[in-house]
Amino acid sequence: MFFASDNTSTVHPKIMDALAKANDGYAAPYAEDRWTAELTERLRDLFQAPDALVYPMMSGTGTNAALLAAMTPPWGTIYCHQSAHVDVDERNSVPFYSGGAKLMPLTGRGSRLDPQELGLEVRKGKAAEDIHISPPAAVSITNLTEFGELYRPEDISQIADAAKLPLHLDGARFANAMAASGASPWEMTRELSTLSLGATKTGAMGAEAAVLFDPAYQEAFESQRMRGGHNLSKARYVSAQILAWLEDDLWLELGAHANAMGARLAQGIEEIGGELPYQVDGNLLFARLPRIMHVKAKAQGAIYHLAEPDTGLIGDPETPLMARFVTSWSTTEADVDALLAAFVSDL
Predict the structure, then answer these.
(1) pLDDT 10s digits, 318-341
(2) What's the CA gap between 211 and 290, in Å, rounded?
(3) Minimal CA–CA distance to 261: which of 322, 344, 327, 346?
(4) How many CA atoms are closer than 13 Å to the CA of 88, on its beta-carbon side?
């Protein structure tokens, strides 16, 4: 009953096999290998972006930081949702990489940016014309969001229209977002300047790609990547993983399965009286359940995160406690059903 993170899942066998095959013979270092060249062409075709630049990476945080630092001067402002990973979970990496750029978290609607609120804040920043103010530089969104909600292509278009700024997408769970949306890759990315494409949470061992739809950021990104220690020597092993991930739409298959397990868990939680405060669009969901249910599940070995530390298990048994659950490509129906049974079992 591992529901703490999709990072806990194993590597998909097809991706492990691709790693083994890439391990045969010699290859040029620093992304000059044939796997990376093939990946670049594959992603250009997938996104219908013939000028896109592709860089194999191993860290989602490093990818986000290097891309955003390339999109802003040190004195610029980057707008994001108040729950965004780049602001809450990456230890000020964007200001560090960029030399001082400011992240401005906004309240939004649910866990997504509100185009009206965003547009108002950007206009205020642009109208200031004051040397004391950090000017608007870029916008970053996360899809799926940190609370599992989905931006559809029309949502992204509204954000782009409202901000009229370069747009970055943190796609740590991009496969889940794509599987949930039913949109084409081009529809989902047509408004973007950059994309952090993550495969690690959806079947890879450790594979991310920085995609620059706007080649104007090339020199700045490559400089940030080099200075941050992310210019990979043996990049073929990352590119080989993502190629296998994309082959025959494996990435969408894995994302769809994880989403289906999330939906099964969400339905079961509601059936036992739990509350879902956010829309469940993919494989990440939050739920409020009585403390006693958490006590029962934890006693039987269920692994997931409570909004409060596990000391929150002490107290009134009927008090609802918020928890986060994440399903993965390798989660089974039996896994989900075992967790649901644990919530309502006898101690």
Answers:
(1) 999 999 999 999 999 999 999 999
(2) 43
(3) 327
(4) 13
